[in-house]
């Protein structure tokens, strides 16, 4: 196992497929009849329009039934953009319309710069020209473009001294450091087909390709977890760490061909597909197998590739990753509970039994990092994926000056600070970065101890919140964004607590009955915490004192608590139970107060700790894909190492280590060397199988106390 959690076998590691889960959402196609016909076609065509020279060479198994050939467009929600050469007429190409959930036309208004469709031999971009097809910049590319399939050929043999023969560049017509989302090119001098992504540094992965202009090459590149990899003609690369990509603020166009420099060699493109979601290894194999059979090069696949002898056919569970399904009827039924949710408000919260702390940050140090630079084992990323999270204040980065992230080493607290510099600025952070990399939890207890400024009414429009988002919307832009507000307050009334559930409309429209096309919202609790509502005393959070809030989400009911007193209890809905990441912010909304803040003053939301607990019963369950819970081996004494045995077959895993629930920053390997900070504590490892269907995850049991 290397530092990235990757294992290779002849350049590629097979993984077992998980069983199909029940209740999988059936997707509704938005593609054309043409694309459906293409996907259902019983005969796989090569780029020349004929069966490949060794297509179906082995033939079907005796006695087997004819299966419908698999095609990427059979699962249209995964496809963001797709261009196929067979959709073009022969001759000059001035416009090439894509399919996908976010279709676009790649165009060239200047006739002399138009590439040429060569019969059924692809779209040719000629050497020595700036022939190119362009389309507008896509600011959502960091979220949407999770994988890409490119089939192309290059006259490398005749241009063996050249590099960077352009094929594709998303957001790169004007260069710059935030582009390549992704970029694909040939490197004839090394006989390689190259994929690049830019996370502040250009990350390149490349594989050996055909140097013969008659030989097509198939690339599947992808971002998954904290790793970017590429498979070229069936052979995978080792991969490398990649961080969050930045939005394309320069509005630099995308292109096929080359708009920046004359083409350094002839290049022809058969197809380009760009997709959303994180692919498991089975789907990567299917995409590669489909591509190689499409161009008749299946015999060039490695001998152990699952589709060397026959192409992928039909669908399986891996084509249907789990996604949130909105149920309008269930949503309305939930609302029928009415005021029953308040039957125990003001009473002592039910006792907490059978829970284990799986995450605890008491801010011994400042654990907030820049959301574009934080590594896999980082704890908090700022300023979150939402540009407007601060409302009328800018949520600034860690490097902002004066800082909005003020750590007090003596009290072990972190303050989110509203500070004025030209305009109001503030702090906000989440447990994932803006590309969805980080820590998430489903059910459990989500708890914070915090203090708001002591300030009398009338107050400015402070807008603090402890809340969560479902992770899915960062990977499926066609799906609803789930928001759970564990609590939020305004400056109008510091005693009025607000707890809400939101299902926001998707970033991209997509026709599916299980996607809410417009936002829907429900109030879990909204009232004053005071004696009139059954509380022993008024809790006004602008009293300058620490308070403890938590949400306890269990299988049947969810409870919301302040200072040990119940605020509300409601049936646990799928929205509440969804896997979620924590967000904390101290926003300023001038419409939510009755006074103006003083620019000469600073206002702090001081956080003492944040904790997540989960039930021991849930932690003891072995999830699909794991043969058993991860196991720890080794002696529990300082200077010795603990090793986790993942007990899951996966080419890519992510390991996170914890000391009594406190994340151990920087430790992501399968081995952890115990040191003096571990003495007197117990160690645990969290394992996520990133390359397996639905990315199952499990916890090891806790170790013995380190001596």
TrEMBL record:
Residues 1-28 are annotated as: Disordered. Belongs to the glycosyl hydrolase 16 family. This is GH16 domain-containing protein. Residues 11-28 have a biased composition (Polar residues). InterPro entries: Beta-glucanase-like, ConA-like_dom_sf. It comes from Mesorhizobium abyssinicae. Residues 332-618 form the GH16 domain. It comes from the Bacteria. Residues 1-10 have a biased composition (Basic residues).
């Amino acid at each position: 196992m290397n530092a990235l959690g990757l294992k290779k076998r002849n350049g590629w590691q097979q993984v077992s497929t998980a069983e199909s889960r029940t209740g999988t959402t059936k997707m509704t196609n938005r593609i054309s009849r043409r694309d459906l016909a293409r996907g259902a076609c019983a005969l796989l065509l090569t780029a020349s329009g004929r069966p490949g020279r060794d297509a179906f060479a082995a033939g079907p198994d005796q006695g087997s039934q004819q299966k419908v050939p698999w095609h990427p467009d059979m699962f249209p929600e995964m496809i963001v953009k797709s261009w196929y050469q067979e959709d073009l007429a022969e001759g000059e190409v001035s416009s090439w319309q894509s399919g996908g959930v976010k279709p676009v036309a790649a165009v060239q208004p200047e006739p002399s710069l138009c590439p040429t469709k060569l019969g059924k031999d692809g779209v040719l971009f000629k050497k020595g020209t700036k022939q190119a097809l362009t389309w507008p910049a896509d600011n959502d590319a960091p979220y949407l473009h999770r994988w890409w399939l490119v089939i192309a050929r290059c006259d490398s043999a005749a241009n063996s001294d050249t590099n960077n023969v352009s094929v594709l560049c998303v957001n790169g017509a004007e260069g710059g450091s935030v582009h390549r989302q992704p970029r694909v090119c040939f490197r004839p001098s090394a006989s390689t087909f190259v994929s690049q992504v830019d996370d502040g540094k250009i990350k390149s992965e490349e594989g050996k390709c055909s140097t013969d202009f008659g030989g097509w090459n198939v690339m599947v590149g992808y971002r998954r977890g904290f790793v970017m990899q590429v498979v070229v003609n069936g052979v995978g690369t080792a991969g490398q760490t990649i961080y969050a990509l930045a939005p394309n603020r320069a509005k630099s166009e995308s292109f096929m061909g080359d708009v920046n420099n004359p083409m350094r060699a002839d290049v022809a493109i058969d197809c380009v597909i760009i997709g959303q979601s994180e692919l498991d290894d089975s789907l990567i194999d299917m995409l590669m197998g489909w591509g190689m059979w499409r161009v008749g090069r299946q015999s060039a696949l490695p001998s152990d590739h699952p589709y060397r002898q026959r192409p992928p056919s039909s669908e399986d569970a891996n084509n249907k990753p789990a996604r949130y399904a909105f149920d309008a009827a269930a949503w309305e039924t939930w609302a029928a509970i009415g005021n029953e949710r308040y039957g125990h408000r003001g009473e002592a919260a039910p006792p907490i039994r059978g829970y284990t702390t799986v995450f605890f940050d008491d801010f011994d140090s400042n654990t907030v990092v820049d959301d574009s630079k934080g590594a896999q084992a980082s704890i908090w990323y700022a300023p979150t994926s939402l540009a407007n999270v601060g409302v009328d204040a800018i949520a600034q980065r860690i490097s902002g000056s004066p800082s909005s992230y003020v750590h007090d080493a003596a009290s072990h607290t972190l303050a989110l600070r509203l500070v004025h510099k030209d305009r109001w600025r503030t702090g906000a952070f989440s447990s994932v970065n803006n590309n969805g990399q980080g820590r998430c939890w489903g059910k459990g207890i989500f708890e914070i101890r915090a203090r708001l400024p002591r300030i009398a009414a009338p107050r400015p429009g402070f807008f603090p919140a402890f809340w969560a988002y479902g992770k899915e919307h960062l990977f499926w832009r066609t799906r609803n964004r789930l928001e759970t507000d564990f609590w939020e307050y305004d400056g109008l009334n510091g005693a009025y607590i607000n707890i809400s559930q939101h299902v926001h409309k998707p970033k991209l429209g997509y026709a599916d009955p299980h996607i809410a096309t417009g936002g829907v919202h429900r109030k879990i609790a909204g009232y004053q915490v005071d004696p009139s509502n059954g509380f022993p005393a008024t809790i006004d959070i602008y009293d300058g004192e620490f308070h403890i809030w938590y949400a306890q989400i269990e299988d049947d009911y969810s409870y919301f608590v302040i200072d040990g007193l119940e605020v509300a209890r409601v049936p646990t809905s799928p929205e509440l139970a969804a896997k979620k990441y924590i967000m904390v912010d101290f926003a300023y909304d001038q419409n939510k107060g009755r006074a103006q803040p003083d620019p000469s003053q600073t206002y702090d939301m001081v956080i003492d700790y944040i904790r997540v607990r989960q039930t021991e019963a849930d932690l003891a369950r072995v999830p699909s894909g794991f043969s058993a819970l991860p196991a720890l081996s080794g002696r529990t004494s300082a200077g010795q190492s603990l090793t986790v045995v993942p007990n899951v077959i996966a080419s890519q895993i992510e390991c996170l280590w914890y000391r009594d629930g406190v994340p151990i920053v920087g430790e992501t390997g399968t081995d952890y060397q115990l040191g003096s900070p571990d003495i007197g504590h117990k160690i645990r490892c969290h394992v996520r199988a990133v390359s397996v269907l639905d990315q199952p995850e499990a916890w090891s049991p806790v170790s013995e106390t380190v001596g």
